[in-house]
């Protein structure tokens, strides 16, 4: 398990900054779509995506080999609330989750 954390940390250090600019629109749009659909308090959308960060890190670090349940829920949710997310790959969305 410590090895996975190290891989995740390295992936975040090298990959997230480079990808943040490219996918910021997707992740920001998904967040704003989710929060505008709520009553103004912290929405379930934000929680689903934030709770998937660890799974997203494992997914990115393993080059898509590790797929956690929280990540699957977040991917499904993002694609339901944001049309741009429907066109994005799982890897692109996982990186966008990490960039948030």
From TrEMBL:
Residues 1-20 form the signal peptide. It comes from the Bacteria. InterPro entries: CHP02448. Residues 25-45 are annotated as: Disordered. Keywords: Signal. The keyword Iron does not apply. It holds the Pfam family DUF2388. This is DUF2388 domain-containing protein. It comes from Luteimonas lutimaris.
């Amino acid at each position: 398990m410590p090895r996975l954390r190290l891989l995740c940390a390295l992936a975040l250090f090298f990959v997230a900054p480079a990808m943040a600019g490219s996918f910021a629109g997707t992740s920001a749009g998904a967040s704003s779509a989710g929060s505008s659909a709520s009553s103004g308090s912290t929405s379930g959308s934000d929680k689903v995506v934030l709770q998937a960060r660890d799974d997203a890190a494992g997914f990115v670090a393993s080059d898509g080999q590790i797929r956690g349940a929280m990540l699957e829920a977040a991917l499904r949710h993002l694609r339901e609330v944001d049309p741009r997310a429907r066109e994005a790959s799982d890897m692109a969305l996982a990186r966008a989750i990490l960039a948030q």
